[in-house]
Amino acid sequence: MEQQAKSSKTITVLAWLIVLAFSMPFIWMILASFKTQAQIMSPAQTFIFKPTLKNYSAVFEQYNFIKYITNSLIVAIGSTLGSLLLGLPAAYAIARYRLQGLGLLLLVARIIPAITFLIPWFILFSQMKLIDTYIALILSHMLVGMPFIAWIMISFFDALPLEIEEAALIDGCSKLKVFLNIVLPVSGPGIITASLLSVIFSWNNFMFSLILAGEKTKTLPVAVFNFISYSDVNWGGLMAAACIITLPVLVISLVAQRYIVSGLAAGAVKG
Amino acid sequence: MRTGWLDRNIKWAFTLPAVLFVLIMMAFPIAYTFRTSFYNWSMSAANPSTWVGLDNYRILLSEQRFWNAVGSTFYFTGLALALETVLGTAIALVLYRNFAGKNVAKTLFLLPMVATPVAMGLVWLLIYEPSIGGANAFLQLLGLKPVDWLGNPKNVIPSLAIVDIWQWTPMISLIVMAGLSTLPHEPYEAADVDGATGWQKLTQITLPLVRPTIMVAVMLRLIDVLKTFDIIYSTTQGGPGNASETLNIYSYVQGFQYFKLGMASSLLVMFFMLVMGLTLIFIWMRKRLGVQ
Fold first, then answer.
1. CA B162 to chain CA centroid, nearest Å
2. What's the pLDDT at A5?
3. Which stretch of A206-210, A239-243, B5-9 has the lowest confidence by average pLDDT?
4. Mean pLDDT score, B185-190
5. pLDDT confidence of A269, banded at 50, 70, 90?
6. Which of A95, A97, B91, B165 is deepest in the core (most CB within 10 A)?
7. ∠ Cα B50 B54 B56 (to 5°)
8. Which residues on chain B are in Cβ contact (under 8 Å) with A257?
9. Are the beta carbons of B272 and A12 separated by less than 8 Å?
10. What does the pLDDT read at residue B292?
């Protein structure tokens, strides 16, 4: 008994040391975001320093981050809605009619390097004058979001009991109505999980925006490079910007941890 | 009567939009990239695209820079994947146990994998900064000499692998923990009766039983590590020189910095076949190991 208590104490210490080690980059980012350039340069002020909010005000006032936050939100929400619209019915049909071949097709999107799509899109979107528009960004982000949402939802729909749907069909309900009025309302948890992760993937996506966005539609991951000029790096501003980009994702993940963890596990194991 | 038609064909009506989207946005671009790989094209009106057959491939295969990118890709992938697997499994075995604050700890531990990669790449740029960064401050604390993490061609790939390990070890742990939770109790009870030590139980029961799960995790990571882009672009952009230029970065440079779209396309065709080939080899190996 005593030995067990001791071993669980060792495990507690070890586990929290691991968590602390993996949290260090976040701690470093947050601390530096409240420091002046001089404080960042001074090793004596690593943990104890007089915090400043100057970096954050610079991010919003000089670097106009409200615009990039808006762009990121439009693209993330737009591409997630589009992905749900295409992905939910497809996932339902694949789950109910066992269309495994189509399920596999969705997986190919995961294996192919994304730049393979980017060259043709860049050419196509240039010709259609769609570079630097939300449409181009939303469509490209949907390519990550839609297969992911479909993949999570296939296993979710698979696990739903068939009885209620069958009863409704016998009562003369059309299949479309069954899907809209019976299946979707009970699929809330699955849809929340899939949507949250789709929003996060889009929010984090860098490569598509790097090539398809311009001054007007630049999203946060591209805008953050404004802090690096050829001569030097504005470290405090850069870290404040990194916090502004990362913290929403981290907070969502902590608040909705139940959904996020199950989604990541399902997406990883199945995907 | 519209609903009647829809009801009879719901299987196709529901999947068609998604399939069309995938065909237009994915299949067409792949075919187009394949075709472009046989052309010399730099996206300018002065130089229309011309058919060059296999020339792009021939040039790339005879190039030092291409083989350097192949080498970097394998070095980075091998190093990151091996350490992530060992570390991820070990951490899963710790975090799977019961301890104070387990749920909070697990969620905090998973945060690196949802954090925006580019932002985190830039944070690591500060951490690796030779004179003001945290990495060298830590080494000094241990009484070690400072290291030029990203500036020295010899160190840059291991340094970048550390960033990938930091960000993605949690994913291996997450999957392995999911595998651990499905293990049966009986073998452990039998082992207890036989008086097995904790280490024997670990190496002879737990690890063999979770091996299939670990293999799945490794395969998923393999696919993604090969394609790492964000953290390399945001820290070194392939430098110093071409020391950290992987195939993905090199394709980007050819396509969107030099605008040699034909050359970039043939690079991508080879890169795609490499990722596909390694994935298939891995699936085949897993099947063989599974049979034994």
1. 13
2. 60
3. B5-9
4. 88
5. low
6. B91
7. 70
8. 103, 107
9. no
10. 42
Distance CA A52, CA A55 (A): 7
Give the ranges where chain B is alpha helix by DSSP (H).
2-8, 10-22, 28-36, 55-61, 64-95, 102-110, 117-127, 134-141, 156-180, 186-193, 198-201, 207-226, 230-235, 247-252, 261-291
Give the ipTM of the model, two decimals please: 0.90
Q: What is the chain B residue with the closest CA to A222? A: B118
Which of A4, A7, A14, A22 to substitute to test the interface with B, most B CBs within 10 Å? Answer: A22
Q: State percent of chain A over pLDDT 90.
A: 47
| Average pLDDT over every residue of B38-45 | 80
**pLDDT computed for residue A111 by the predictor:** 80
Q: What is the mean pLDDT of chain A?
A: 87
Distance from CA of A236 to the nearest CA of B (A): 10
In this model, does residue B3 exceed pLDDT 70?
no
Distance between CA atoms of B65 and B54, rounded to whole angstroms? 18
Q: Residue B116 is nearest to which of A147, A175, A221, comparing CB atoms?
A: A221
Q: Which band of pLDDT confidence, cut at 50, 70 and 90, is reported for residue B125?
A: very high
Tokens of A220: 């946060």
Tell whether A251 lies on the interface with B, counting CB pairs under 8 A.
Answer: no
Q: What is the 3-state secondary structure (H, E, C) of chain A?
A: CHHHHHHHHHHHHHHHHHHHHHHHHHHHHHHHHCCCHHHHHCHHHCCCCCCCCHHHHHHHHCCCHHHHHHHHHHHHHHHHHHHHHHHHHHHHHHHHCCCHHHHHHHHHHHHCCCHHHHHHHHHHHHHCCCCCCHHHHHHHHHHHHHHHHHHHHHHHHHHCCCHHHHHHHHCCCCHHHHHHHHHHHHCHHHHHHHHHHHHHHHHHCCHHHHHHCCCCCCCHHHHHHHHECCCCECHHHHHHHHHHHHHHHHHHHHHCHHHHHHHHHHHHHHC
Element (H, E) at B50: strand B50-51
For residues B147 and B139, is the Cβ–Cβ distance under 8 A? yes
Task: Using an 8 Å CB-CB cutoff, list chain B residues near A32.
Answer: 126
CA nearest to A254, candidates B268, B162, B51, B108: B108
Strands B39-40 and B50-51: antiparallel
pLDDT of amino acid B109: 94
Q: In whole angstroms, what is the distance from residue A83 CA to residue A143 CA?
A: 8
Q: What is residue A38's predicted lDDT score, i.e. its pLDDT? A: 83
